[in-house]
Amino acid sequence: MVSIPGLAENLMPKSITESTPLLDPGGFAHEPKRRATAESMASRQREISVSEFFTKNRHLLGFDNPAKALLTTVKEAVDNSLDACEEAGILPEIAVEIREVTGTAAKGSKAKDPESAGGDRTAPGGPSRFRIVVEDNGPGIVKPQIPKIFAKLLYGSKFHRLKQSRGQQGIGISAAGLYGQLTTGKAVVITSRTGRGRPAFQVHVRIDTKRNQPDIVHEETVDWAREHGTRVEIELVASYRGGRTGVQEYLEQTVVANPHLALTFVSPKGERLEFPRVAFDLPPEAAEIKPHPLGVELGMLQAMLADSPKKTVKQVLIDDFSRISTAVAQQVCERAKVNPSAPAERIHGEQLERLHTALGTVKVMAPPATAVVPIGEALLIEGLKRRFSRAEFYVSTTRPPSVYRGNPFVVEVGLAFGGDLPADEPAEIMRFANRVPLQYQPKACAISEAVYLTNWRSYELQQPKGSLPIAPMAIVVHLASVWVPFTSEAKEAVAHYDELLREMGLAIKECGRKLAAHIRAKAHADREHKRRSIFQKYIPEVAQALSDILNVPKDEAQKAFFKALPSFVRLADEPIEGAEDNGQPSSPAIAQAGNRGLLPGATDAPTPRGPARASPKATAPPPHAPKGGKGAKAREPLHVPE
Amino acid sequence: MASKKQKANRTERDEQTLARIDKLARRALMDVNKGNNPALEIRTRTLSNVAFNEKTRIIELGHRTQSREFFNVAMARKFMQTFLIAKGCKTLIDEGKTISIRQMFYMTKHTLEDSEENTFEDQSESDPIIEDLEVGIDALREELHLFANRRGGLVGNMVVRDGPDEIDLARMGRGGWMIPSICEDDALQFVRCNADFILFVEKDAIFHRLNEDGFWKKHKCILMTTQGQASRGARRLMQRMSLELKLPIYALVDNDPWGLYIYSVLKQGSINLAYESMRMAVPNVRFLGMSAFDHRKFAMPKAVEIRLTKEDLARAEQMKAYPWFKAKQWQREIQGIVQNGFKMELDSLLTKGISFISEEYIPKKLRDRDYLQ
Questions:
Q1: Which residues of A touch B83 (CB under 8 A)?
Q2: Which end of chain A has less Cβ packing within 10 Å, N or C?
Q3: Position A611 pLDDT exceeds 80
Q4: Is residue A8 part of a domain?
Q5: Which residues does chain B have within 8 Å of residue A549's beta carbon, measured at their own beta carbons?
Q6: Rounded Cα distance, A515 and A521, in Å
Q7: Which residues face A97 on adjacent strands?
């Protein structure tokens, strides 16, 4: 900040009260000449269409460079497919194909898209034109909705309700279509069929960026082998790359967090990756919930009251919040010194603030756990095995539901350790929010921070100060919530809420403890193996010498030594509670379709509601337990930490 | 025990040794058959397990033993090696052959199966195991049919029978007769002796000097050297000469703690071979020189002084604490070195003339009876 003393005194009077005008009318000695009047300015003021807004601010939605644009497009399409399948109750089967469109490569688009043409320095050879095809076996979309869903920004079914889902704003897939349109001029092609006996429609749509309205270019009925499902094709100028932020990484991580998903991916090089599903039950459907009194924001409370004409304060509290009974509503009003039967829309100012404070102090049950669906401990391990099939040890923890700002959430952590994971590199973190991988901005994310803040040294791992542990390890952290707090609309990093960090920390520690037990047991076993091999090495020599001296058969002497050996080597193979050891490393996930169905994890799916518990140790107070505490404490997570 | 070869050649001592090796192996096998940890009991050869016997004036090995177990990571390898050596010795006895300890190293060295590791990596590993076996079954090295490299020589007015040959030690030319590594009475006998005393010199060069000067002829003595620390053969020979010829023995060593220790080993034995002291120690060997006080007595120039190092001083302190050096004259002698702050080599006597040592130094010391015992 630059401060200019003389100026500051003029601009900032010593005390500002409501009665004194903010600006002193005669304050400036030299007033500049007016350039426009309020009226002439009004003539230029008009509504900005969201599409136009996007054109200028596409970085907010994850289209800031060609490589990211490709990832975001795939991601939005896959997330939508998964949400649709789960909502309809269909086991998802998704195929993703990325083809490089040769010949017409990015030439025409360069003029239209100077930013992306010069912006990406990392992609070898620069951006070129790609056609992305994402096809699912979902419920399909009825014909009239197709244009709106794919060619109208901010149109969706998920924004208006408090329910755990992948997409949230309804901006993603249409933004991807818009990006394609801006860089290639091509329309989005959607093919969809809603069921047997019904026709399959193919629609080509563009977005009218001025009006934020779909513009149907072409539509027809086509033959489609799929009974039901949706296929989206978007052509766009982009860069395909591998690594942490690549499409393949996204898909491989998605497969970890979605064990029930069967995925096929064809890369631009024509390589085909197949991930057969390992879970044969859909995750339970998340219940839609009302806001919870703890942590509801003042602005939201105000809006809820204002939107309820002809209702009393008490009635609004009872109807529009979860877990508020008549008695509790009465209590809240008493504490806030607000008349329970006052009209809701009249509450404002100090009354509103008192009401808000009172809501934070009452004893209420935690929000219903049914609103949040974790992957579950057993399935998280199955998911991890899809990607790291040759690790030697897997462990996972699903925390009991907790609450931040009135939103229920569950944190899950899984670890894969050892085996063929690289031993002298920092551990790999996979971040998930509602089963969606987060690939960008790891440093800004609360999940990464929770991993960094954990003292891995107490779990027998090396950890340079303030950084990731150096170990053959992959860490999965999944945050499932009705409303995931992201740091930006691009949904790249989870915001740092104390409650979230705390739950993540607890889950990581729980896994860490089990990992440490495994490492210690292994170190002990290694030592004993080493001891045993030393004895084994010398036994034949000793046996030979004894046999020569005593004139007895060598075998006899040798047998005697080998028979005595076990009582001098302590080798116990005790499994560690709540964890899974990979006794025989299974084959890579790819191209192992046949075997997958036999995995025990597939049938031991979690119980329909609430997290699956593999570890008896992890029992915590039930999520519905009444909550103690008062005052400021009431905003803390609702369960008793270990 | 059905040996295929040369059973007839075995002596009674051989049979005894074989029985001991057999017993050692049998016990190990019995232990392991019972599921126990097979172990060898070996007497500890450290300073803490030796005692100075005031009566016999020799260093004796105590009774504390160390158990060498097979099922113990730190001991398994040595356990294995001990039985390899034991088996090697049995073969030698069976075949009636005698080899050097270096040859035993090669005889028992081979690479372990499925490994890069050898049964013995070098001789410094096998030598202590041989000593362990000697202690473990209470057998002498000769009884195991092993010998060390020969070191040391002898000239003088004496005739010996070494194996089949009779040797006149007065006719050994400039080099002298090489002392065999085994000097037991079945291999070596004294035939005639016409000497009044034995002069032991630590250094080969001084031996050469005295031999060239005809010292032994003039003074009617036997001249003996060991080239540093005396080998077992030389020590055994010296003891036998002392006992059988009943001649006084005088020793000449460098004037420093290490020289003094060479004398000490001759006289009462060493810590490591304490179990053999009684057949090697010569308690009445006399310390003729060089003494710390000879520097002044013989008006040696300052130039011959060599500053004592830290190690020299530490060694001197250690030796002062040995029970066999507790006598006043020894404390005085060691303290003399420390007080001088320097050490002297026997060779330094040549500063007073090439033959000063043979013509003046030794005769004067002998005449003055200027020695310690």
A1: 541-542, 545-546, 549
A2: N
A3: no
A4: no
A5: 21-22, 25, 83, 86-87, 90
A6: 10
A7: A133, A266
pLDDT at A22: 60
Highest mean pLDDT among A132-136, A285-289, B65-69, B177-181: A132-136
Q: Distance (Å, rounded) from C-alpha A133 to C-alpha A558?
A: 67
Catalytic residues of B: 106
Q: What was the pLDDT predicted at A5?
A: 45
pLDDT tens digits for range A380-435:
999 999 999 999 999 999 999 888 877 889 999 999 999 999 999 999 999 999 99
Shared domain check, A237 and A332:
no
Alpha-helical regions (H) of B42-187: 76-95, 101-108, 123-137
Is pLDDT at A170 greater than 70 in this prediction? no
**Total residues belonging to chain B:** 373
Which residues does residue A337 pair with via DSSP β-bridges, in sequence order? none
Provide the H-helix boundaries in A460-596. Answer: 498-550, 554-564, 593-596
Angstroms from B351 CA to nearest CA on chain A: 59
C-alpha span between B58 and B115 (Å, rounded): 46
Phi, psi of B105 (to 5 degrees): -55, -45
Of A427, A416, A338, which Cα lies nearest the Cα of A383?
Answer: A416
Cα dist from A93 to A66, A255, A280, A302, A592, whole Å: 27, 11, 12, 43, 16
Whether residue B237 is found in the same domain as residue B110: no
CA atoms of B106 and B122, how far apart (whole Å):
9
Domain count, chain A: 3
pLDDT confidence of residue A57: 77
A155 or A575: which carries more pLDDT confidence? Answer: A155
At residue B3, does pLDDT exceed 50? no
In chain A, the N- to C-terminal Cα span, in Å, equals: 46
Same domain, B134 and B159: no
Rounded distance, CA B203 to CA B191, Å?
27
Q: Which among A526, A549, A569 is the top mutation candidate for probing chain B, defined by the most B β-carbons within 10 Å of its own β-carbon? A: A549
pLDDT tens-digit profile of B212-245?
999 999 999 999 999 888 888 899 999 999 999 9
Q: Which of A359, A382, A402 marks a domain boundary?
A: A359
For B127, the domain range is: 7-147
Q: Which residues contact A393 (CB under 8 A, 6 or more apart)?
A: A415, A416, A417, A418, A419, A515, A518, A579, A580, A581, A582
* Whole-number percent of chain A with pLDDT over 70: 78
Claim to verify: residue A431 and residue A497 sit in the same structural domain: yes
| A637: its two tokens | 């997570």
pLDDT at A621 exceeding the cut of 60: no
Interface list for A 526-555 with B (CB within 8 A): 531, 534-535, 537-538, 540-542, 544-546, 548-552
Contacts of A215-220 with C-beta under 8 Å, sequence gap 24+, read A215/A147, A215/A151, A216/A147, A217/A187, A218/A187
Query: Looking at the domain assignment, is residue A397 inside a domain?
Result: yes
For A26-53, give one letter per residue: b (16+ CB within 10 A) or e.
eeeeeeeeeeeeeeeeeeeeeeebbbee
pLDDT score for B126: 94
| pLDDT for residue A589 | 36
From residue A163, how far is each of A291, A369, A409 by CA, in Å? Answer: 10, 12, 11
Asked if residue A629 has pLDDT above 60, the reply is no
